[in-house]
Write a structure and sequence with these properties.
By secondary structure, the protein is of the alpha+beta class. It has 3 helices and 11 strands. Strands 5-6-10-11 form a 4-stranded antiparallel β-sheet.
């Protein structure tokens, strides 16, 4: 969903439906990452916006996607629906390469917050080797996260809130105050309210496989065999 708050599926202006902590909401984006011993990786973010209300093709057995709702029908805009042009989309399952070799697959649900949360995670992991103090997969996922609403939303009614930043309450208070001093309007959310990342990796030098899952929402898990 586009926010960390539960909203009724199909509610006006709600964006994607989001899953409540009790799992009562009927639909949402999900994400999974897979790696095998040979280094083959899959990163997938299945989502149709409102799958429960989408038409199902009887011969195929699955509902159509609704991601084209993110495009604009007004002409001349960067995300205008245009033949042969790849539109902006918030579905961003990701695979990181080192010297052309896949080493990590990662991603998250979250609408317009996907790229934000994933960037924070990736930078935390990328710092691990060249600079001391970087985090492993689980540490990078668990680190306090945040997002901004300063850009037009992908979902109708495409709202924006310039200067708005939402951080988890675990964020250092000095950081929050410095953001406010710089003119940001900071909202302090719950301690585990930003992001639902998961990730897998394979060290090409040792073949060691790693996986990490998000404690937020109590819905993520990592398994290996």
């Amino acid at each position: 969903g586009r926010s960390t708050h539960a909203t009724a599926p199909g509610a006006a202006g709600a964006g994607e439906p989001t899953v409540a902590r009790d799992g009562a909401t009927r639909g949402d984006t999900c994400h999974l990452d897979i790696v095998d011993r040979w280094g083959n990786m899959v990163s997938a973010t299945p989502s149709g916006g409102w799958l429960q209300s989408n038409p199902v093709v009887p011969e195929l057995g699955f509902p159509l996607g609704t991601r084209l709702q993110m495009t604009w029908l007004d002409e001349g805009l960067p995300n205008t629906l245009t033949p042969g042009v790849r539109p902006r989309t918030t579905l961003t399952p990701s695979i990181a390469l080192r010297d052309g070799v896949p080493v990590m697959a990662f991603g998250t649900p979250g609408g317009d917050q996907q790229d934000q949360w994933q960037t924070h995670f990736f930078l935390a992991v990328a710092l691990r080797e060249p600079v001391r103090g970087g985090l492993d997969l689980q540490g990078a996922i668990d680190a306090p996260n945040w997002h901004t609403d300063s850009f037009p939303g992908s979902f109708y009614p495409r709202e924006m809130d310039p200067g708005a930043v939402t951080v988890e309450s675990r964020t250092d208070t000095e950081v929050v105050e410095e953001l406010r001093r710089r003119g940001h309007r900071v909202t302090v959310g719950g301690p585990w309210s930003e992001g639902r990342l998961c990730a897998v990796s394979r060290d090409p030098r040792t073949g060691v496989l790693s996986a990490a899952a998000n404690p937020r929402g109590m819905q993520g898990y990592a398994v290996g065999r």
